[in-house]
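Duplicate of #3305? Posting structure anyway:
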């Protein structure tokens, strides 16, 4: 989370989203763009975590049906 706030572009790069990381880096080059880039990175990180959590729940529910 700290990485997403301090270095938003690197947060995308670490998660394998290279093109998105480059776009975020370009956005960060402007002083005004730093805040939107940080917000974008944090929201993206939260969405990724929520998707993984949802996938785990779906798998658990399917296993319980059997």
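Output from current build:
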């Amino acid at each position: 989370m700290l990485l997403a706030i301090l270095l938003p572009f690197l947060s995308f790069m670490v998660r394998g989203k290279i093109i998105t990381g480059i776009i975020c880096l370009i956005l960060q080059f402007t002083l005004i763009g730093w805040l939107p880039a940080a917000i974008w990175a944090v929201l993206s990180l939260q969405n990724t975590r929520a998707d993984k959590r949802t996938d785990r729940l779906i798998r658990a529910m399917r296993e319980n049906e059997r």
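Confirmed duplicate; merging threads. The radius of gyration is 15 Å. The chain is about 90% helix and 0% strand.
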